[in-house]
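Today's session is about reading a structure prediction critically. Students often jump straight to the picture, but the first step is always the sequence itself: look for stretches that repeat, for charged clusters, for runs of hydrophobic residues. Only then move on to the predicted structure, which in these notes is written as discrete structure tokens rather than atom positions. Here is the chain we will use throughout the hour.
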Amino acid sequence: MARVTVEDCVQKVPNRFELVMLASQRAREISAGAKETVDRDNDKNPVIALREIAEETIDLDHLRESLIRSLQRHLPFDDVEEEEEPDVAALQSAMAETMGAAALAVNVGRQEDDEDAGEVEGEEVDEDVDLNATAAETDEEV
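Below is the predicted structure for this chain, in token form.
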């Protein structure tokens, strides 16, 4: 078994940094179950990847594309479908309905509280009394 050297691979991929990235991507692919294109010879995945690059048994362009796809975090802009603008009138009416239902529930709760507060030992308080008018009358008397 001939040992692979970096010089063998640099002839195929001139940039050493790109070589490291491509070899590591190929090693990950082999670890994930991709078929090896050279004999294993009891070598580890990074060595197999370097041997495949040196012997040109894999397509480097395909490996570059695979590397780019694995590093992407977002979809390219061209592939994203345009979202329709929301119907503002429909959103406003839905909010009004929701807020109206919430306000109605609050008012019903207040009415129940007022009715409970109005009962004093079995007597009901007259709900038609205007508290502002009563307060004004009290100020005049003083």
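Discussion point for the tutorial: The domain at 6-72 is CATH 3.90.940.10 (Eukaryotic RPB6 RNA polymerase subunit).
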